[in-house]
Design goal:
The chain has two domains: 49 residues, no CATH class; 331 residues, Metallo-dependent phosphatases (Purple Acid Phosphatase, chain A, domain 2, 4-Layer Sandwich), CATH 3.60.21. The strands form four sheets. Strands 3, 4, 7, 8, 15, 16, 17, 18 and 19 form a nine-stranded mixed beta sheet that branches. 26% of the residues lie in helices and 23% in strands. It has eleven helices and 19 strands. By secondary structure, it is of the alpha/beta class.
Length: 428
């Protein structure tokens, strides 16, 4: 073989070993060695990765070798047997809805009769617009400020009320679970009125608090099962409009007495209640600011470990919401929820008496197994006196007037509720 042919063979062998695109490295001319460029290194790496061939790349002895590390694989841990997998209990919570005074003034009762075509009484047209909010709650409680007639007879409005049984039936039909009954009108129909009222509530499938037919019934707290959580409801009133309960029958209507309220709350807790709600018929009529009496009583009751929530009535106008009580576990006081259904307006009283509200509160179980307030909202309402329909602020077709909504939000948020976990609307 000639020298020229030998040289050509040597060049070709070197080119094949290094691969296409190789160039002579400066200073290597004398040894006749070619090194792979950086571009080739990347290409060879990619090809090795794609083919999963983690091999040494052949080069002449003087050049470097291309190597690839295999990918680092995480430890493969076999799944635990099902019996060893920790069980995480779901978070337990309950959402409750409360609303203001339902007062069956004569005009309201006549409208219910007209809704029924003159035969009986139909309250559903008045209530249907607020039904979606009531249905969303795990527990919904109304406040009925009147006795009920079992036969829908001998009906009357102000000053001594007696409402048809259909009012309770309408309340139940839209999703309420019960009502507070203790008010200054609870004894308008004396003892027989108390008995008939509780009978009607029971017949309508509703729970009740504040009125009792017997001493045993009074001693047995009203406890609801809501979303698997036991909620006790108590109800008290400041007076009976001058009437006195018969001697030995103070069980008929529950009157406000701080010592009694605390005792009843403790008894409810001992009976299994995980949350205790107290309805209070208190305050000064037509005054949106809580009275000194309300303020002092709220401070005392909310310091008690067995009282979690106070909801107020009677003022006929809305009052503020505020967190009160224990430093590490404050409860909530809803001082007043206005009129939910009534004939009051500026014609007799003040403009704000047409305003009401639905207050929704959520309590959530803590790691200690107790329930604490975690969130809430208000849905302002307004009574349209043209047909006594209760209109929510966020009604899809008919809604409460903006002026009414603004009044309610301003008052109810005036003690900081909207900075303490409450939203100014319950609309979704």
């Amino acid at each position: 073989m000639s020298a020229v042919r030998a040289l050509l063979v040597l060049v070709l062998v070197g080119a094949i070993a290094v691969g296409p695109g190789a160039v002579a490295s400066p200073g290597d001319d004398e040894g006749g060695v070619l090194r792979a460029t950086e571009a080739e290194t990347t290409s060879a790496s990619d090809e090795a990765l794609a083919t999963n061939e983690w091999a040494k790349v052949d080069t002449p002895p003087q050049s470097f070798a291309l190597r690839k590390r295999p990918p680092r694989l995480g430890r493969i841990v076999p799944p635990l047997p099902e019996r060893l997998v920790p069980k995480i209990a779901p978070v337990r919570r309950v959402t409750m809805a409360f609303s203001g005074d339902m007062i069956p003034h004569g005009a309201v009762t006549r409208q219910a009769q007209a809704n029924a075509g003159g035969s009986g009484y139909d309250y559903l047209p008045m209530l249907e617009h607020i039904a979606p909010f009531i249905e969303r709650a795990d527990l919904a409680i109304c406040h009925l400020e009147s006795p009920l007639s079992a036969t829908s007879s001998n009906l009357s409005g102000y000053p001594q009320f007696n409402a048809p049984r259909e009012l309770a039936e309408g309340v139940a039909a839209i999703g309420y679970d019960g009502c507070s009954l203790a008010s200054n009108h609870s004894f308008d129909r004396r003892e027989s009125g108390v008995i008939e009222t509780v009978d009607v509530m029971e017949d309508s499938g509703l729970g009740s608090a504040g009125m009792s037919r017997t001493p045993d019934e009074a001693a047995d707290p009203q406890i609801y099962q809501a979303n698997g959580i036991s909620v006790a409801h108590l109800s008290f009133t400041y007076s009976l409009n001058g009437f006195r309960l018969p001697a030995g029958k103070d069980y008929l209507v529950d009157l406000i007495d701080p010592d009694v309220i605390e005792q009843r709350a403790a008894e409810a807790r001992s009976a299994g209640a995980q949350i205790v709600v107290v309805s209070m018929h208190w305050g000064d009529e037509y005054r949106s600011t809580p009275s000194r009496y309300q303020d002092d009583l709220a401070n005392r009751l909310m310091a008690h470990p067995d009282i979690d929530l106070i909801v107020g009535h009677h003022a006929h106008v809305v009052q503020p919401i505020e967190k009160r009580g224990r430093a590490n576990d404050p409860g909530v006081v809803v001082f007043g929820m206005g009129n939910f259904l009534s004939n009051q307006s500026s014609a007799c009283c003040i403009t704000a008496t047409q305003d009401g509200v639905i207050v929704m509160v959520t309590f959530t179980e803590t790691k200690r197994g107790q329930f604490e307030f975690t969130s809430g909202c208000i849905e302002p309402t307004w009574v349209d006196r043209s047909d006594y329909t209760i209109l929510p602020a966020s009604g899809p077709d008919r809604a409460a007037p903006e002026a009414s909504v603004a009044r309610t939000r301003s008052t109810m948020g005036s003690a900081g509720a909207f900075d303490q976990g409450f939203a100014s609307t319950c609309a979704r």
